[in-house]
Design a protein that fits this description.
CATH topology: Rossmann fold
CATH superfamily: NAD(P)-binding Rossmann-like Domain
CATH architecture: 3-Layer(aba) Sandwich
Length: 273
């Protein structure tokens, strides 16, 4: 599925995106690497073993999406796989969060991958199909405290890709939705606070999370196996997903107790009065 295929990765400059680039390259895929940081993209390309094409752009440059798709397709005359990975998180109480946080996160985490997929999907279907990996989150299944914007966007990402899968499976498309828990990236450090500024500190859970290379390998193995949804989480994070689906009231009670016990203060996510 990967050797000599062309895979396009957004958010490829770091974290899961960079890890996927290296693992896909190791499996023989040619890579289109997108993100905002050109220097970081060059670094990732330098670690890859196969041909790479750097296509930097801002994820929310909706007016430019058609042109980016044209360039990506023209590079090898096709795109066989797309990884919708670019995203940004949040650590703030909804009651304190300015609307700009919601607009920015929903644009980056939901509308940007929809815009890119909508522009690319018809070409992929016409060419006989391909594969899409959408990086959601455990927070896209559970309504996680301090992540109201992030959970909203990641819930939407799952719904969109589930619909695309249903509509295009008979046309040769495979769609894998991944819901990671804690992966060792800068996601919490770069998360927005209530005022739409980068938080600047990481979470202990993230710092102790799964290695990105391990996460990437598990994603690609799942796609190869025909998996359509991968809960890429362990321990309590995996249990939260099970609770949301089997006993949601127990999950709601647990989150309410968590917040009443001072979770926002522990995370440094509550404004000081």
């Amino acid at each position: 599925m990967f050797a000599d295929r062309v895979w396009w990765i957004t958010g490829a400059s770091s974290g899961i995106g960079a890890a996927l680039a290296e693992v896909l390259s190791g499996d023989g895929a040619k890579l289109i690497l997108s993100g905002r940081n050109v220097g970081a993209l060059k670094d990732v390309a330098g670690r890859c073993k196969t041909a790479t094409f750097l296509l930097p752009f801002e994820a929310t440059d909706f007016a430019g999406i058609a042109g980016h798709v044209e360039k990506a397709w023209a590079w090898q005359g096709r795109v066989d796989g797309l990884v919708n990975n670019a995203g940004i998180s949040q650590r703030s109480l909804a009651v304190e969060t300015v609307f700009d946080v919601y607009r920015k996160i929903v644009d980056i985490d939901l509308m940007a991958p929809i815009a890119l997929t909508q522009a690319l999907l018809p070409r992929m279907v016409k060419a006989g199909g391909g594969a899409i990996i959408a990086i959601s989150s455990v927070a896209g299944i559970v309504g996680a405290p301090l992540r109201s914007a992030y959970s909203a966007a990641k819930h939407g990402l799952i719904g969109y890709h589930d619909s695309v899968r249903a509509e295009t499976a008979h046309q040769g498309m495979k769609v894998l939705v991944v819901a990671p828990g804690s992966v060792r990236t800068n996601v919490s450090k770069n998360a927005l606070d209530a005022s739409a500024h980068a938080r600047g500190v990481s979470d202990k859970a993230i710092d102790q999370g799964m290695e990105p290379a391990v996460a990437a390998r598990r994603m690609l193995d799942a796609l190869n196996a025909g998996t359509r949804e991968l809960i890429l989480a362990e321990g309590m994070e995996a249990e939260l997903v099970k609770m949301r689906r089997a006993n949601p009231n127990a999950l709601f009670d647990q989150f309410e107790r968590l917040m009443a016990g001072g979770y926002a203060q522990q995370m440094g996510a509550e404004k000081k009065s």
